[in-house]
Design brief:
The protein is of the alpha/beta class. The chain contains six helices and five strands, in the order βαβαβαβαβαα. It has a five-stranded parallel β-sheet, sandwiched between helices. Helix 4 packs parallel to helix 5. The chain is globular and about 45 Å long. It starts with a strand and ends in a 12-residue tail after the last helix.
Length: 154
């Protein structure tokens, strides 16, 4: 599994902490920046990561980190094929993968500490997309342009 990682200046220290842990776990990390705590604009990093992620032919996921995770999530979700979820704890991260087939986890370095971030990332990475039809149907609806859906329950 390839992991694309990116952060702005606020997320840089947490990215480095997580990158070290994940490398030790055997993940191949593709770091798209930043490489210091010098000011950086989160949309630039999110767009670099999402461009590479959607073009990747091997199994891959992404992790984006900014101050709250919100800006990265908004920016990442602008690209077709991206389902970025902002999660601050393991249950939400796992459900984002299981129910929404999220392919990017966004974290807030000013919201979660290193240990909670590590647990959240591990939950995201160890969870797969549910085989249940209802989740597949809903994710297909997410991909529709302009919300052209039909109403269904279940």
């Amino acid at each position: 599994m390839i992991l694309y990682m990116g952060a702005d200046h606020a997320g840089y220290p947490l990215k480095e902490f997580l990158k070290s842990h994940l490398t030790q776990q055997g993940y191949e990390i593709q770091d798209v920046g930043v490489y210091s705590e010098d000011p950086a604009d989160y949309p630039d990093i999110a767009h670099q990561l999402t461009e590479r992620l959607v073009q990747e032919t091997r199994p891959a996921l992404g992790i984006l980190i900014c101050g709250t995770g919100i800006g990265m999530s908004i920016a990442a979700n602008k690209r077709a094929g991206v389902r970025a979820a902002n999660a601050s704890e393991p249950v939400s991260a796992a459900l984002a993968r299981e129910h929404n087939n999220a392919n990017i986890l966004c974290l807030g370095a000013r919201v979660v500490g290193p240990e909670l971030a590590r647990a959240t990332v591990e939950a995201f990475l160890r969870t797969g997309f549910s085989p249940e039809d209802r989740h597949h149907r809903r994710v297909q609806k997410l991909e529709l342009v302009g919300g052209e859906t039909t109403s269904r329950t279940g």
